[in-house]
């Protein structure tokens, strides 16, 4: 392996989130009953004509702005002519030589040396992004095939990277990063199970130091981000072992089976298509001016990794917490709102990364449906810091907020959770606790400060959680100093 | 002498319906009766639905009696070339490929006509997929020229022209890609208009060559043409190539312009291949305009000789792609003995398409194919730019261009069928107009010694239909060519 | 000036149309004639001329992303040569 280097390029198709299809206004969707999302244009009935979807154009320009692409001032539509049963017109409307976005890059993060260590960041260059229309779905039965055209015509962005990745891990990181950007931008949810993101990989290997690329193999049917990584790893090994045994790499397309972890040849280069691309006479070209770009630029969110770096710097929260927050923009926004309200970024980060996420996971609802809003959580954190309630009480308040949506102060009042034990009781409980644990007392006297924590539990238990933690600590210390 | 009902103009019929002299049901019955009487000989129709037409007529009469008339065309039957989609009716393109296809949607022009109460009457024959100049390429049998049943009506909208000439409809719609409205109009002695590209929506018109196709009306008079144009012209959001432009009231504009006009005669259009009788009729028309004070200028359209070549590259390239959808998968003819999907494509298309269609698809595939595209397709589009420039340059000096529509009157069936190139050259005068995207109109301007109609073509400025129709109208007012009718009864039908 | 030669077999394959041997011969000859005619275009000086994509240059023709009703399944399949379970049936496609 050390004698060779790997060159990987990815071709990613991302379905744009849109109400209607790319060239006609029938509804888009996934999982609908077969052939219920069609119209004469989708089915390519005699006499129909395409009309561009304005929002899809916005989406791709926005994607280009997010990914630092050059947005072409002029672009047009071409017909890619080939026959296939999932393609109703037997040509696909796409962009051949004048795509709307050129160049650009995706920032990726590779795995770090440990889970809590940030990995290396790299920029993966893109070649181009263009818009086209998706095809229908072929369902294979025992003796024939059935075609569902619901997906046909859905707006699709094709993102092509330079052959610039060097490992399966980089490809995995690329797709993860791309997905996050697309979700942040509201462009697509990139759910591979729903066909919203699809990926083909081109893999070749060459001796280290050689400038010329090796023969490339195209890998298809990589149905999840993990399968992309696994498939690429498998292909690299296959090529290496082939070369080592004196064989030659054949330029071909291979189909990867994620279940078995094997691949097989689909077709070789000899069957290359002549697509006879020509400008589509039914559609007018597109001019993108500065005003259009400016409008979309104003809608662009902060990029995920920029946000992550900023969170670590501005809020001084650890990498591990940001790793949990960043992939979900609504979660990051929630964190930031909470931190700003209570001024306790660490606490906010912990509560969100642990308790809130657990709560959302339980309910299965998205974060904006959760009854605990940033102001609820901020108020709760403030109560804890002020010592008004104990951490134990806080957990109870949290659960209650999740089901009722009441503000924490109200719940504390209603349930009488204020750490309001009388100072006499407190004095008694503390004395009793110290008396009951001579071992801890000895350790404390010997200089081990953390031994004081051993006394706190019994005090809180006796107080039924209603003791002010700060006061407990003060009281204990005073008594211990005696 | 008053015309029988089936030969009256739309303007007259509209007026008689308005004054309740006739009802729409009566009119429609007369049209149906006439069709039944002559269509066995003429064969203009692929199909018609008598009950449906009468139901539409009844609805029109009901609207009229409750003072809810939708407009000038309410209650008037209009024939549709069988490439314009009408919901619930066959849409065959006169092809075996679509023999049993019934459309689930309306073309935009259909919706517009229904919206003004016009009656959709029957499906008219054409050269298969609009490819041809004689209607001999129809898979359902050829249409015969009512003036001489042994001759062709022209094409590809032969059925639309013949039906009108034979009194089987007061007006019809056709489509024109290289002359397919104007040439049959000339050969059948009626008025045929191809509008500026983009004026009338193509949504619902079976596409042949997307950058050239236009729907247009066949009528008895220029005024009728203006009436139809009023109803169907205008921007359509369903057609990205349809133009956003102010639509005038073409009928009202008609009489506003009296001329005199500056008319250009392109010297390249009067050379070899032009029948002397046609030349004479056109010259007489030019003399007429001159006598009315029009300035006649000889102009040059230097790239004329390349027009047919350019056309056959661009049109076949576009159609080879447009016709790829006819594959027997979702609709249309599917071969009975297909073993696999490839077989299904190859056989269904071989069985479904006629020879001319296959020829053009093959040629179109060739001019787009790898290694040849620059030499053919791209080059043709450049020469097309030059052809358009020729016209626009001429329009600096003239208001319209006058030419013959067809180099000869109607030729005999079978005469040119064996030689595709000879057939293509029938369109030599009309083709440049489609390439340049200009409006073109053919009006009757005489008859040959043997009684065959001769057509005069007037070509206008982009979106200059008002002016164009006025120029034509002023000639028409002082000539009676359009009042002659063919004697179908006296002729023996073809076997 | 002679025209380029047509490879009818290749073109018929690209166009997915079975041609009989007779048709191939006939078409090759007829299209050869047409191509000879078209070859004249080579003599035109097109230096600096842009190809006409559309007669009048218009840009940014689109519609807003508002979904409209489409066809019912029945309408969508009303002309289907073969259907089952609301889908179009074709011979088994091997991918």
Shape of chain B: globular
Number of spatially distinct domains of chain B: 1
Query: So what's the CATH class of chain B?
Result: Alpha Beta
Give the strand order of the largest sheet of chain B, numbering strands 1, 2, ... along the chain. 1-3-2-4-6-5-10-11-9-7-8
What's the tally of helices of chain B? Answer: 16
For the record, the CATH class of the domain at 3-42 in chain C is Mainly Alpha
Global geometry of chain C: flat
CATH architecture of chain B: Alpha-Beta Complex
Largest pleated sheet of chain C: 2 strands, antiparallel
Question: What is the rounded distance between the termini of chain B?
Answer: 34 Å
Low-confidence segments of chain C: none
Describe it:
The complex is a heterotrimer of chains A (482), B (495) and C (95). With 482 residues, chain A is an alpha+beta fold. Chain A has three domains: 4-295, no CATH class; 302-415, no CATH class; 423-481, Arc Repressor Mutant, subunit A, CATH 1.10.10. Chain A contains 15 helices and 18 strands. In chain A, strands 1, 3, 7, 8, 9, 12, 13, 14, 15 and 16 form a ten-stranded mixed beta sheet that branches. Chain A is elongated and about 95 Å long. The termini of chain A are far apart. The mean pLDDT of chain A is 93. Chain B starts with 9 loop residues before the first helix and ends in an 18-residue tail after the last helix. Helices cover 38% and strands 12% of the residues of chain B. The mean pLDDT of chain B is 96. Chain B has a single domain (5-301, 388-483), classed as Amidase signature (AS) domain (Amidase signature (AS) enzymes, Alpha-Beta Complex), CATH 3.90.1300. Chain B is globular. Chain B has helices at 10-18, 24-42, 50-65, 108-115, 158-165, 182-188, 222-232, 250-254, 276-291, 307-322, 341-352, 355-368, 374-394, 420-424, 431-436, 465-477; strands at 45-47, 77-81, 119-124, 171-176, 191-194, 214-219, 262-266, 295-299, 400-404, 440-447, 453-459. Chain C has a domain at 3-42: Histone, subunit A, CATH 1.10.20. In chain C, 32% of the residues lie in helices and 9% in strands. Chain C has helices at residues 8-14, 21-38, 73-77, and strands at residues 62-63, 83-84, 87-91. Chain C has a two-stranded antiparallel ribbon. The longest helix of chain C has 18 residues, at 21-38. Chain C starts with 7 loop residues before the first helix and ends with a strand. Classes of the chains: A alpha+beta (482), B alpha/beta (495), C alpha+beta (95). Chains B and C meet through helix 10, helix 11, helix 12, helix 13 and helix 14 of B and helix 1, helix 2, strand 1 and strand 3 of C. Strand 2 (52-53) of chain A pairs parallel with strand 1 of chain C.
């Amino acid at each position: 392996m050390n004698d060779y280097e790997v060159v990987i390029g990815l071709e990613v198709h991302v379905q744009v989130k849109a109400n209607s299809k790319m060239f006609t206004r029938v509804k888009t969707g996934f999982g609908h009953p077969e052939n219920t999302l069609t119209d004469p244009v989708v089915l390519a009935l005699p006499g129909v004509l395409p009309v561009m979807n304005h929002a899809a154009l916005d989406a791709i320009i926005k994607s280009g702005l997010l990914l630092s692409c050059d947005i072409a001032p002029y672009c047009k539509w071409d017909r890619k002519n080939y026959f296939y049963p999932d393609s109703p017109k037997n040509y696909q409307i796409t962009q051949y030589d004048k795509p709307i976005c050129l160049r650009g890059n995706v920032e990726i993060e590779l795995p770090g040396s440990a889970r809590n260590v940030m990995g290396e960041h790299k920029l993966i260059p893109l070649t181009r992004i263009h818009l086209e229309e998706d095809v229908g779905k072929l369902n294979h039965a025992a003796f024939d095939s059935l075609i569902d055209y619901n997906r046909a015509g859905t707006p699709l962005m094709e993102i092509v990277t330079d052959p610039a990745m060097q490992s399966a891990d980089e490809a995995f990181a690329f797709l993860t990063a791309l997905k996050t950007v697309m979700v942040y931008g509201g462009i697509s949810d990139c759910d591979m199970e729903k066909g919203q993101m699809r990926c083909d990989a081109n893999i070749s290997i060459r001796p280290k130091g050689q400038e010329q690329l090796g023969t490339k193999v195209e890998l298809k049917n990589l149905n999840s981000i993990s399968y992309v990584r696994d498939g690429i790893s498998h292909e690299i090994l296959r090529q290496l072992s082939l070369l080592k045994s004196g064989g030659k790499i054949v330029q071909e397309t291979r189909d990867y089976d994620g279940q078995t972890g094997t691949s097989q040849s689909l077709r070789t280069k000899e069957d290359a298509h002549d697509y006879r691309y020509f400008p589509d006479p039914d559609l007018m070209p597109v001019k993108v001016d500065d005003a259009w770009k400016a409008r979309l630029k104003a809608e662009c969110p902060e990029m995920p990794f920029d946000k992550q770096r900023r969170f670590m710097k501005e809020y001084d929260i650890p990498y591990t917490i940001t790793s949990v927050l960043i992939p979900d923009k609504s979660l990051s926004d929630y964190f930031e709102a909470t931190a700003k309200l209570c001024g306790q970024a660490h606490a906010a980060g912990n509560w969100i990364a642990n308790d809130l996420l657990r709560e959302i996971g339980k309910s299965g609802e998205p974060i904006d449906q959760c009854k605990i809003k940033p102001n609820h959580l901020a108020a709760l954190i403030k109560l804890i810091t002020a010592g008004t309630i104990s951490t134990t009480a806080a957990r109870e308040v949290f659960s209650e907020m999740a089901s009722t949506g009441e503000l924490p102060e109200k719940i504390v009042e209603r349930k009488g959770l204020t750490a309001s034990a009388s100072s006499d009781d407190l004095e008694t409980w503390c004395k009793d606790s110290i008396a009951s644990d001579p071992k801890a007392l000895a350790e404390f006297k010997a200089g081990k400060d953390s031994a004081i924590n051993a006394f706190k539990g019994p005090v809180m238990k006796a107080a039924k959680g209603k003791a002010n933690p700060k006061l407990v600590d003060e009281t204990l210390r005073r008594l211990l100093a005696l | 002498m008053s015309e029988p009902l089936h030969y009256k103009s739309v303007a007259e019929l509209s007026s008689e319906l308005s004054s309740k002299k006739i009802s729409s049901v009566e009119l429609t019955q007369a049209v149906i009766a006439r069709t039944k009487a002559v269509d066995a000989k003429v064969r203009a129709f692929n199909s018609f639905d008598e009950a449906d037409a009468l139901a539409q007529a009844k609805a029109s009469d009901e609207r009229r009696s409750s003072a809810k008339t939708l407009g000038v065309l309410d209650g008037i039957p209009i024939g549709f070339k069988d490439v314009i989609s009408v919901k619930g009716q066959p849409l065959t393109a006169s092809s075996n490929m679509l023999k049993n296809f019934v459309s689930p949607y309306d073309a935009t022009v259909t919706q517009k006509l229904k919206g003004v109460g016009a009656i959709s009457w029957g499906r008219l024959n054409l050269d298969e997929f609009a490819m041809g100049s004689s209607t001999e390429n129809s898979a359902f049998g050829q249409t015969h020229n009512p003036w001489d049943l042994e001759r062709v009506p022209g094409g590809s909208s032969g059925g639309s022209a013949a039906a009108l000439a034979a009194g089987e409809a007061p007006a019809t719609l056709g489509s024109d890609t290289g002359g397919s409205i104007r040439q049959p109009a000339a050969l059948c002695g009626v008025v045929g208009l191809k509008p500026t590209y983009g004026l009338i929506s193509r949504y619902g018109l079976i596409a042949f060559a997307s950058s050239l196709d236009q729907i247009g009306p066949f009528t008895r008079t220029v005024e009728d043409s203006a009436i139809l144009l009023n109803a169907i012209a205008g921007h359509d959001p369903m057609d990205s190539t349809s133009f956003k432009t102010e639509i005038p009231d073409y009928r009202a504009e008609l009489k506003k312009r009296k001329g005199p006009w500056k008319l250009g005669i392109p010297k390249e259009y009067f050379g070899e291949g032009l029948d002397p009788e046609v030349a004479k009729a056109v010259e007489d028309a030019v003399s007429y305009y001159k006598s009315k004070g029009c300035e006649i200028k000889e102009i040059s359209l230097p790239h004329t000789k390349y027009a047919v070549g350019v056309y056959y590259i661009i049109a076949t390239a576009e159609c080879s792609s447009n016709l790829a959808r006819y594959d027997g998968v979702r609709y249309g003819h599917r071969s009975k003995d297909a073993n696999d999907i490839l077989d299904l494509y190859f056989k269904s298309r071989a069985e479904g398409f006629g020879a001319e269609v296959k020829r053009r698809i093959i040629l179109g595939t060739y001019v787009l194919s790898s290694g040849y595209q620059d030499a053919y397709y791209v080059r043709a589009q450049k020469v097309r730019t030059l052809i358009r420039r020729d016209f626009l340059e001429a329009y600096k000096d003239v208001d319209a261009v006058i030419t013959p529509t067809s180099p000869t009157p109607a030729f005999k069936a079978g005469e040119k069928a064996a030689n595709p190139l000879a057939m293509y050259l029938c369109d030599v005068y009309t083709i440049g107009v489609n390439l340049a995207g200009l409006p073109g109109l053919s009006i009757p301007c005489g008859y040959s010694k043997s009684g065959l109609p001769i057509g005069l073509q007037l070509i206008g400025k982009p979106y200059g239909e008002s002016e164009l129709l006025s120029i034509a109208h002023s000639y028409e007012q002082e000539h009676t060519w359009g009042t002659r009718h063919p004697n179908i009864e006296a002729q023996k039908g073809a076997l | 000036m002679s025209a380029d030669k047509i490879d009818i077999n290749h073109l018929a394959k690209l166009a997915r149309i079975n041609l009989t041997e007779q048709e191939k011969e006939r078409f090759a000859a007829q299209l050869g004639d047409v191509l000879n005619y078209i070859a004249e275009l080579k003599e035109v000086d097109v230096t600096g001329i842009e190809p006409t994509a559309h007669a009048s240059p218009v840009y940014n023709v689109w519609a807003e992303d508002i979904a409209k009703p489409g066809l019912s399944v029945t309408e969508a399949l009303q002309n289907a040569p073969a259907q089952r379970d609301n889908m179009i049936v074709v011979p088994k496609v091997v991918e």
